Amino acid sequence: MTTVDTERVPDAAVARRPARVRVLWLLAGVAVLAAAMLASVVLGSRNVAWADVWAALGGAQGTLEEAAVAKRIPRTLLAMLIGAALALSGAVMQGVTRNPLADPGILGVNMGASLAVVCGVAFLGLSSPTAYIWVAMGGAAVSAVFVYTVGSLGRGGATPLKVALAGAATSAAFASLVSAVVLPRNDIAGGFRLWQVGGVGGGSYERIGQVLPFLAAGFAICLLSARGLNSLALGDDVAAGLGERVAVVRATAALGAVVLCGASTAVAGPIAFVGLLVPHACRLLVGVDHRWLLPSTVLAGAALLTFSDVVGRVLARPQEVEVGIVTAIIGAPFFIHIVRRQKVREL
User: Fold this and answer.
1) What does 252-263 look like in DSSP terms, one character per residue?
2) Residues with Cβ < 8 Å from 243, sequence gap 6 or more?
3) Cβ pair 267, 211 in contact under 8 A
4) Is 129 helix (H, G, I), strand (E, B) or coil?
5) Do 231 and 292 meet the contact criterion of CB atoms below 8 Å apart?
6) pLDDT digits (tens, 9 = 90+) for 218-235
7) Which of 9, 30, 57, 103 is 20 to 30 A off residue 48, Cα-Cα?
8) Which pTM value belongs to this model?
9) Residue 345's pLDDT is what?
10) Cβ proximity of 347 and 233 under 8 Å
């Protein structure tokens, strides 16, 4: 086999869909995301007319409808960013571990970030949103390493079910610790109860500006890891034989996933199942090539969380159902389906 042939093996091995079909699916994702954005701006506890939307986009806030639109725009942008980040994080985690059950929520990474933020506020007196993000990323990284280490113990190494069970147990333990820290502290309990559920109701341009640099870095790292993830999909030995530095590729991609997960959790709370549901759905549409899969998960994740936020606002008017509850209702049956599949051992 020539050097040129060797370099092309990963791309040839993962080419499962014609490029035209993939492009069409990406364009469809853009259209769905645009529809979700419009629905998020128009629908809610108070529906608004298109005239109010255009007036609010021009800066007008003279009526209740225009003020509602002005408030929904940053909320919509935050929902898109968080949904895209969680979906991309899940897709990269699945690629790094070759585990179809990998998801920031299922593996306990979200709750690790949550526990770190709660402890930082309660014991260290953290008050800066930027500090929340750094602490959350650290907690997410420690949780990810801990769960993978526990899931690797025993015969067979880190099988998908063992890692998922370790993640579920760790997530439950961390959730209990979060409650133990928050409940005695009346000064922080009220705000953290809503944050723990997961939601984007507090979206603002200021909050977006604080988290955007971290998310941008995470997006860049993950998307640039696509070719390396294609090589890892062939197995560590084959990837090493093709010249990939397996440990570096895996660590770099995992870093990007942890940054996305930690930053998202810091601003929106622990939202589960987006990172599980979206990559599996996109894999059916565009195939397993990560150069196409990762961008498609970004679009689909943004659309899913934005639509879920709209459903939560419309479902219980004039109250709201937090988006974390909506995604749990959607994702839990899908998780059960994945667990029951016969080919759940590896991607």
Assistant:
1) HHHHHHHHHHHH
2) 6, 7
3) yes
4) helix
5) no
6) 999 999 999 989 888 887
7) 30
8) 0.86
9) 53
10) yes
Residues 328 and 305 sit within 8 Å (Cβ to Cβ): no
Angstrom distances, CA of residue 149 to CA of 65, 106, 140, 143:
52, 15, 14, 10
What is the Cα–Cα distance from 50 to 154, expressed in whole angstroms? 60
- The mean pLDDT value of the chain amounts to 83
Quick one: average pLDDT of 338-347? 58
Neighbouring C-beta atoms of residue 64, cutoff 10 Å: 11
What SS3 state is found at 245?
coil
**Rounded to the nearest 5°, which phi and psi values hold at 244?**
-80, 140
Tell me the CA distances in angstroms from 63 to 51, 68, 74, 324, one per residue in order.
12, 9, 18, 30
Q: What is the dihedral of CA 139, 140, 141, 144, to 10 degrees?
A: 120
The CATH fold assigned to 67-105+190-340 is ABC transporter involved in vitamin B12 uptake, BtuC (1.10.3470)
What is the Cα–Cα distance from 168 to 174, expressed in whole angstroms?
10
Structure token digits, residue 276: 């599980």
Which SS3 state, helix, strand or coil, does residue 49 take? coil
Single-letter amino acid code for the residue at 78: L
Whether residue 6 has pLDDT greater than 50: no
pLDDT over threshold 60, residue 10: no
Residue pointed to by tokens 């603002």 = 204
- Of 137, 133, 113, 117, the C-alpha closest to 125 is 117
Q: Which helix (H) or strand (E) holds 177?
A: helix 160-182
Q: For 131-149, how does the pLDDT look when each residue is reduced to its tens digit (9 = 90+)?
A: 889 999 999 999 988 988 8
Q: What is the mean predicted confidence (pLDDT) over 314-338?
A: 82
Q: How far is CA 69 from CA 21, 206, 279, in A?
A: 36, 17, 31
Q: With 0-12 CB in 10 A as exposed, 13-18 as middle and 19+ as buried, what is 246?
A: middle
Distance (Å) of CA 34 to CA 25, 31, 38, 42: 14, 5, 6, 12
